[in-house]
């Protein structure tokens, strides 16, 4: 049975999409069958692995609300072992339309749980909000990765996110775990970066992944080539760090590392 991992933080620009794409690609590189689910109307994960969101007709939303079958929208990516459920801008309207549906928090779970037979890992790239689609993602997920940018105000908003996770655990998804806090955009030369690492580790201790993602230009430029960093420059520090994260997650979950 596969594991569903949501990458969430209501703060924008902390590295959710970069982490979702590159973790998914790294798990695929380790030959785990991986599905990347783009749950953000901005569709950055969709374009980041080479699809034009303008060409996308159906997204996770059509599966959640209109009963479109996942087989009809799952796209195979240019990377072996990696498939995508894409997003498009209409996902913005989804929140509003879903408000009146019964079990409105449960829709994504109904769509994704049957796919756990087909995939080892399902990675959801959440939008920068704690709205209904993100609540759906956290209700569907077995665990959540929280990217934390090594910047000023790194911890800002984390309390609210952890509180939302607690509410979801108590009302909707008692099995939801925190897979880990992921420090991103770390710059070894900056005192601030080091202070953030220390502060986050002090507060959250063993909840923080050992792997720290450095600030790396290959990570920021690879989306413009429509590929994950591992295809853009496999030797880059960015690509290697996400491969290390994938290994850390695989080991933590007691799945044998394939390579
Ligand atoms: P989010 O999805 O949380 O909004 P993104 O993953 O889109 O965040 O990252 C925000 C911006 O920072 C993007 O331009 C992205 O390319 C860049 N970025 C993310 N992680 C890194 C990194 N480790 N090194 C350099 N740039 C990064
Ligand atoms: Mg994003």
UniProtKB/TrEMBL annotation:
<feature type="domain" description="AAA">
    <location>
        <begin position="3"/>
        <end position="178"/>
    </location>
</feature>
<dbReference type="InterPro" id="IPR027417">
    <property type="entry name" value="P-loop_NTPase"/>
</dbReference>
<dbReference type="InterPro" id="IPR025669">
    <property type="entry name" value="AAA_dom"/>
</dbReference>
<protein>
    <submittedName>
        <fullName>Chromosome partitioning protein ParA</fullName>
    </submittedName>
</protein>
<dbReference type="Pfam" id="PF13614">
    <property type="entry name" value="AAA_31"/>
</dbReference>
<dbReference type="InterPro" id="IPR050678">
    <property type="entry name" value="DNA_Partitioning_ATPase"/>
</dbReference>
């Amino acid at each position: 049975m596969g594991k569903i991992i949501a990458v969430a933080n209501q703060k924008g620009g902390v590295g959710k999409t970069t982490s979702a794409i590159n973790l998914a690609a790294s798990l695929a590189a380790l030959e785990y069958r991986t599905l990347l689910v783009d749950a953000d109307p901005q569709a950055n994960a969709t374009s980041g692995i080479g699809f034009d969101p303008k060409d996308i007709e159906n997204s996770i939303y059509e599966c959640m609300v209109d009963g479109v079958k996942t087989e009809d929208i799952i796209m195979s990516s240019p990377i072996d072992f990696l498939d995508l459920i894409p997003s498009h801008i209409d996902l913005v309207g989804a929140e509003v339309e879903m408000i009146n549906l019964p079990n409105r928090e449960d829709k994504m779970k109904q769509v994704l749980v049957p796919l756990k037979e087909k995939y080892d890992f399902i990675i959801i790239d959440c939008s920068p909000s704690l709205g209904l689609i993100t609540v759906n993602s956290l209700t569907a997920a077995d665990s959540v990765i929280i990217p934390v940018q090594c910047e000023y105000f790194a911890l800002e908003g984390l309390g609210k996110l952890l509180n939302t996770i607690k509410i979801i655990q108590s009302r909707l998804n008692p099995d939801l775990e925190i897979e880990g806090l992921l420090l991103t955009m770390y710059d070894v030369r900056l005192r601030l970066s080091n202070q953030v690492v220390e502060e986050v580790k002090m507060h959250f201790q063993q909840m923080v992944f050992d792997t720290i993602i450095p600030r790396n230009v290959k990570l920021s430029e690879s989306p413009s080539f429509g590929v994950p960093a591992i295809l853009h420059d496999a030797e880059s520090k960015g690509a290697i760090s996400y491969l290390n994260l994938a290994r850390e997650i695989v080991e933590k979950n007691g799945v044998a590392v394939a390579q």
